[in-house]
Amino acid sequence: YITQLLADHWASNPQSFEDDHRLEKLYGSLGHSMLSLYQILSNGMEWGRALQPLMEQISPWLAVAFVIYTAFTLFALLNVVTGLFLNAAQRTAEEDKKRLMVEQMRRAFADADIDGSGEVSLEEFQIQLSNPEFQLYMRAIDLHEDNAMELFTL
Prior knowledge:
- It is a single chain.
- The protein is mainly α.
- Helices cover about 75% and strands about 0% of the residues.
- It is built from eight helices and no strands.
- It has helices at about 1-10, 20-25, 30-40, 45-55, 60-110, 120-130, 130-140, 145-154.
- The radius of gyration is 33 Å and the shape is rod-shaped.
- The mean pLDDT is about 85.
């Protein structure tokens, strides 16, 4: 947008650029415009240095467009970064939840192995189903007692 605006202004007022070449250096081509805008966002160039020639030679109203562009881009960038952090935190929380559930399941089946044989018999599993802690665990994983029995017999 800025490069096209500069080209249009240059075509209609070629004498306005003869003494001051700041606009040409900052926005004279698409590459220069992109680099200047990137430097502004990354604090590689002060806003005033980039905005002043636009305001002086083209229009003071470009300051409004410039501020809107910068604010929108910074908020979009912050939104992306925040999303990345939240996604990573959510993934870590899910992994922790899965690890905790596996640990609880191991503990529940170790408690169910009453005779210490390393295997849970049907009788031991039925006894464990009456255990309030095991029932709470079954509710947490959304598994009904009837379904647990079917799962055990598989």
